[in-house]
Specification:
With 337 residues, the chain is an alpha/beta fold. It has one domain: Alpha-Beta Barrel (TIM Barrel). The protein has 13 helices and 12 strands. It has helices at 3-10, 24-33, 40-51, 56-59, 67-70, 79-85, 116-125, 148-167, 186-206, 233-247, 264-276, 290-302, 307-325, and strands at 16-20, 60-65, 73-74, 77-78, 89-93, 98-100, 108-110, 130-137, 171-178, 215-216, 254-257, 283-288. Helix 9 (186-206) runs parallel beside helix 10 (233-247) and helix 10 (233-247) crosses helix 11.
Length: 337
């Protein structure tokens, strides 16, 4: 399949991407938070419960998997086969995590380029049709972060990764994440995100990446989580849209926002506000992890054999985000409202 078609399928109207690519360490923390042992069986049990939800393909176009998961089988079938039967694209996280950027003030560089070509070829054979790589930035006005070095180094890695993924006939999800952590206000977030996106697309072009065959996964424009300033959804939407229009080429098929520490409700509400004022050709959708799974995880922890209730909780969040991706959500639709 042509990568441009795959990219469009990933951001199809009213559908988004489930980020189920938590590393074993992160998944262990999630399971421990609800007092469940983190065994490979339990990790697969939870994930497959979501993947086999009856209505998942109404709301989800693709699922980002972790290395462990794409190799696992359920009743003799691989996870990729199970997803393909539901017309859901299997994807794979390929970065090796954010490590300390040498001699920096607490900044990181994402590693994993060594041997990536060979790994991508293997993942393609295992059924993956898109990949994900996350670059991480933080704002510290005190330390003047992020530094130019951090932005250039991480953007360069995103460019090289994206070229290798397209060479392997897969779609790269390009994820430059500016963390919510910090005391900064929303305008600082917008300015820094603009710098990051500008450098990201410069490096994509430098590496001959076809931006019609990518999906961008950026942060929304938000006040820092330690700023004590409450986010106003209409302001979040306005500034996020301005930032995207200014820095993202119009030929990019879609933007799948990360939730980045927002609550399930906030992530849905802000996505909806963005779509309500969207005057571009971009598809704005979601690529959420915790903001799609948290309610389901809490339900699952009460009884890991009660698949139906877990799936109901997951489908409820997926449906709410699907409506938000169409600009048709409102809080009265929420069960908790």
């Amino acid at each position: 399949m042509d990568i441009k078609k795959i990219a469009k399928q990933m951001v199809a109207k009213g559908k988004g991407i489930l980020a189920a690519d938590e590393s074993t360490g992160t998944m262990t923390k999630r399971l421990q938070s609800v007092n469940v042992d983190s065994t490979s069986e339990n990790r697969l049990n939870f994930r497959n419960t979501l993947f086999s939800s009856p209505k998942i393909s109404d709301y989800v176009s693709g699922i980002i998997l972790f290395d462990e998961t794409i190799r696992q089988k359920v009743n003799g079938k691989s996870i990729s086969e199970i997803l393909n039967e539901k017309n859901i694209l299997p994807g794979i996280k390929v970065d090796k995590g954010a490590k300390k950027l040498a001699l920096s003030k607490d900044e990181t560089i994402t590693e994993g380029l060594d041997g990536l070509r060979e790994r991508l070829n293997e993942y393609y054979k295992l059924g993956a049709r898109f990949a994900k790589w996350r670059a991480v930035y933080k704002i510290s006005e005190k330390d003047n972060l992020p530094s130019i070095e951090s932005i250039k180094a991480n953007s360069h890695a995103l460019g090289r990764y994206s070229a290798l993924v397209q060479e392997a006939n897969m779609v790269p999800i390009v994820e430059p994440e500016l963390l919510m952590d910090g005391k900064h206000n929303i305008n600082v977030c917008k300015d820094v995100t603009s710098m990051i996106l500008e450098e990201t697309f410069y490096q994509l072009e430098n590496n001959n990446v076809d931006v019609e065959g990518i999906v961008l996964k950026p942060n929304m424009i938000l006040n820092g989580s330690e700023s004590s300033i409450k986010n106003n959804p209409s302001e979040v939407a306005k500034l996020t849209l301005e930032c995207i229009k200014k820095n993202v080429p119009e030929s990019v098929p879609g933007i799948a926002f990360l939730s980045g520490g927002q609550s399930e409700f906030e992530a849905t509400m802000n996505l909806n506000e963005i779509n309500k004022i969207n005057d571009t050709n971009f598809a704005f959708t979601f690529s959420y992890g915790r903001a799609l799974q948290q309610s389901a995880l809490k339900t699952w922890a009460k009884n890991i054999k009660d698949a139906r209730n877990v799936q109901d909780a997951f489908e409820e969040r997926a449906k709410m985000n699907s409506l938000a991706a169409l600009g048709k959500w409102n809080k009265d639709l929420e069960k908790a409202a």
